[in-house]
Design goal:
The complex is a heterodimer of chains A (327) and B (380). Chain A has 327 residues and is an alpha/beta fold. Helices cover 37% and strands 18% of the residues of chain A. Chain A folds into two domains: 2-183, Thiamin diphosphate (ThDP)-binding fold, Pyr/PP domains (Rossmann fold); 197-323, Rossmann fold (3-Layer(aba) Sandwich). Chain A contains twelve helices and 14 strands. In chain A, strand 2, helix 2 (44-48) and strand 3 (53-55) form a beta-alpha-beta unit. In chain A, helix 1 packs parallel to helix 7 and helix 3 runs parallel beside helix 4. Chain A is globular, with a radius of gyration of 20 Å. The mean pLDDT of chain A is 98. Chain B has 380 residues and is an alpha/beta fold. Chain B has one domain (41-299, 309-352): 3-Layer(aba) Sandwich (Rossmann fold), CATH 3.40.50.970. In chain B, 40% of the residues lie in helices and 9% in strands. Chain B contains 13 helices and eight strands. Chain B has helices at 3-14, 58-83, 98-105, 122-127, 132-139, 174-187, 205-216, 236-239, 248-251, 264-279, 307-314, 318-328, 334-357, and strands at 42-44, 114-116, 193-198, 221-227, 230-231, 234-235, 256-260, 284-289. Chain B is globular, with a radius of gyration of 22 Å. The interface between A and B is large, with 51 and 57 residues.
């Protein structure tokens, strides 16, 4: 084990997989000479050269499509979006080409590609730079969506994503890149996609939270613990496929659930998780499933508005108290 | 470009990595006088080439003739089957454009070089040697179709022919062509990628991003604009400020050429040159002027053009042109060519019977081919 920043864990995963497999390469804006807009790929151009660490013009649709075509023709690209907000200009490439070509070709072509980069809000960046895209990309059969919350998961999941033969959307966060944590250094450390992690065991309420929201969940669990309540915290880690079984097993024990999800609320990850819970565990629920999400608006700029927009620990704490029917 | 300079540059390019940018540093100082910009574009007119200079034997010529005819008869039958509701959804016919697909397929190493195109894809599929059976069965939505009944008319694919589809979003597949070419260069396997798209795609940003990337990274690709004059019902001149599409090559520092797509010899002459350039990592843009006789799709009566225009174009028919050439040069006889036509018709008829008999895909196959992962937990 080593202490690493989140960005270093991602870099370590990419370096290990590129050393392991000549077909893996990294392409995106500023990934090479600039060493990465958020320094995730620092030193990689020097290490691997311009054949395998490739700077692009600002042409998201162009280089996302380039990656997909290269994957169809035998390579295993890692495509970095400077942020997933910019993936929208490549939307057709992701949702029509990456997601559907395997299907439309009757299984003749596989598309082993990872699209990775920061996702969601990162402070006062205003509406166009603050979108949480996990709900959007999870909508599309053919894609897998991963959203780790800590350096160790990031490394183990990214390595699995790179080795996966299906297209994977891998969502990081500007606000977590400097976060430090223990990281497994085993080059064969692989965390399977689609498996949730029970981060903390508890009896009284289940909190489901991924990516940055996971840290809110831990904070809430601490506050509840001070008052004598034990929360079970589940980090799904992968959004598609989602590990509903782990969540349902937990609810069978706690009978209550709160979902924290920084997506906008309509047709979001939390909507689907709540639906699946009522379908699979209705008889075990002692209270309606509640969720804490971003507001149903575009992200604002002003500091106070942005704080109000984001799901907060206070709101999540209140939601937990509510499903437990305590004041 | 002087040939000496080009050779010098090519030697440099071969040493270049697949992702090495190839742009030139910008001069900060603005020159005092006006800037003159000149570029020459080659043309490949109809009727300008002989089979001898293309090195084509009598057998080659008959095979080319047969292949164009196969596309024509296949689509005529497909249109009939559409009328009988054996085929549903969209059906875009390529009739009139066969010299482009056949000429292209006869200019590459099929199975080694790659091909990708848009939704008007039956012609190139048959030109690459896909069978009438697997193509007709796909149109019928049957399990023996080339895409197992999951793609339909717009989404033919054949991995073993390195045919990367059949794509339904105008311009959306053009960056894929760049990626396919990128992989050829990365693997240093000597392959090139022919990337076909229509005149309508020239209005999509992806095409221009793709051209820039291909030129920037010096990829083995040929952008082939099949200009059939109409993007659905919109004539080129009603949609584009610059209707001379080959000129866009200059914007991306690539060579460009204008080709008559009604003569298979012109297509082959041009393709051979630009395929050879692509193998040396020089991408290019070819505008091939062609014409579709039918509407955009089966529901289109094509009221946006005159009968006279259509009839005039039909006089340039690529199949009739080759037939006349073969007869004039005593390379074949009417009897022999009629026999080929009969044989092709039988092949197409057999494909209809094959498609009829092939089963529909089993319902459980709906979950197949979504993911490589065999045990993906689909939501019920």
């Amino acid at each position: 084990m080593a202490i690493m920043q989140f960005r270093e864990a991602i870099r370590a995963a990419m370096i290990e997989e590129m050393e392991r497999d000549e077909r893996v390469f990294l392409i995106g804006e500023e990934v090479g000479q600039y060493d990465g807009a958020y320094k995730v790929s620092e030193g990689m151009l020097k290490r691997f050269g311009p054949k395998r660490v490739i700077d692009t013009p600002i042409s998201e649709a162009g280089f996302a499509g380039l990656g997909i075509g290269a994957a169809m023709n035998g390579l295993r690209p890692i495509v970095e979006f400077m942020t997933f907000n910019f993936s929208f200009v490549a939307f057709d490439q992701l949702v029509n080409n990456a997601a559907k070509i395997r299907y439309m070709s009757g299984g003749q072509f596989k598309i082993p590609i990872v699209f990775r980069g920061p996702n969601g809000a990162a402070g006062q960046l205003a509406a166009t730079h603050s979108t949480s895209t996990e709900s959007i990309y999870s909508y599309f059969p053919g894609l897998k969506v991963v959203a780790p919350s800590n350096p160790d998961d990031a490394k183990g999941l990214l390595k699995s994503a790179i080795r996966d033969d299906d297209p994977v959307i891998f969502l990081e966060s500007e606000l977590m890149y400097s976060m430090r944590g223990e990281v497994n250094e085993d080059p064969e450390y692989l965390i399977p996609l689609g498996k949730a992690r029970i981060a903390r065991e508890g009896e009284d309420v289940t909190i489901v939270a991924h990516s940055k929201s996971y840290w809110i969940a831990l904070e809430v669990a601490d506050r509840l613990a001070e008052e004598g309540y034990s929360a079970e915290v589940i980090d799904p880690r992968t959004i598609r496929p989602f590990d509903f079984d782990t969540v349902v097993q937990s609810i069978k024990k706690t009978n209550r659930c709160v979902i924290i999800d920084e997506s906008n609320p309509f047709a979001s990850v939390s909507s689907e998780v709540a639906f699946q819970i009522q379908q699979r565990a209705f008889d075990y629920l002692d209270a309606p499933v509640l969720r804490v999400t971003a507001k149903d608006t575009p992200a604002p700029y002003a500091k106070n508005l942005m704080e109000y927009y984001m799901p907060s620990a206070d709101a999540a704490y209140e939601a937990c108290k509510k499903v437990m029917y305590v004041d | 470009m002087a040939s000496k300079t080009r050779k010098k540059q090519q030697a440099k390019q071969v040493d270049q990595a697949a992702g090495q940018p190839n742009g030139q540093a910008v001069q900060l100082q603005v020159p005092s006088g006006p800037i003159h910009f000149e570029q020459t574009f080659e043309t490949y007119p109809a009727g300008a080439y002989t089979h001898e200079e293309l090195g084509l034997s009598r057998e080659d010529l008959l095979a080319i003739y047969r292949n164009m005819l196969l596309q024509r008869r296949f689509e005529e039958r497909a249109a009939q089957m559409y009328g009988k509701q054996k085929i549903a959804g969209f059906l875009h016919l390529y009739i009139g454009e066969e010299a482009v697909s056949t000429g292209a397929a006869w200019s590459i190493k099929v199975g080694h070089d790659s091909v990708i195109t848009a939704y008007r894809d039956h012609g190139i599929a048959l030109a690459l040697g896909m069978t009438a059976n697997e193509c007709m069965a796909e149109l019928f939505g049957k399990i023996d179709g080339c895409s197992r009944g999951k793609g339909g008319s717009m989404h033919f694919f054949k991995a073993e022919k390195k045919f990367f589809g059949g794509h339904g979003i105008v311009g959306g597949h053009v960056p894929l062509g760049v990626g396919i070419a990128f992989a050829h260069k990365y693997k240093e396997d000597g392959g090139v990628c022919l990337t076909f798209f229509g005149d309508g795609a020239m209005g999509q940003g992806t095409v221009h991003e793709a051209m820039n990337l291909a030129a920037l990274y010096k990829l083995p690709i040929i952008f082939i604009i099949e200009n059939n004059q109409y993007a659905m019902g919109t004539a080129v001149w009603r949609a584009f400020a610059n209707t001379e599409f080959y000129r866009y090559a200059a914007s991306y520092n690539m060579p460009g050429a204008l080709v008559d797509g009604m003569d298979v010899f012109s297509v082959m002459k041009a393709l051979r040159k630009y395929v050879a350039l692509a193998r040396e990592y020089q991408p290019s843009v070819l505008e091939v002027r062609t014409y579709r006789y039918r509407g955009h799709s089966m529901s289109d009566p094509a009221k946006y053009r005159t009968k006279e225009e259509l009839e005039a174009k039909k006089k340039e028919d690529p199949i009739i042109r080759l037939k006349s050439y073969l007869l004039q040069h005593d390379l074949s006889t009417n009897e022999e060519l009629d026999a080929i036509d009969d044989e092709v018709k039988k092949e197409v008829q057999a494909s209809v019977e094959f498609a009829e008999k092939s089963p529909f895909p089993p319902l459980e196959s709906i979950y197949e081919d979504v993911y490589v992962q065999p045990d993906y937990p689909f939501l019920a």
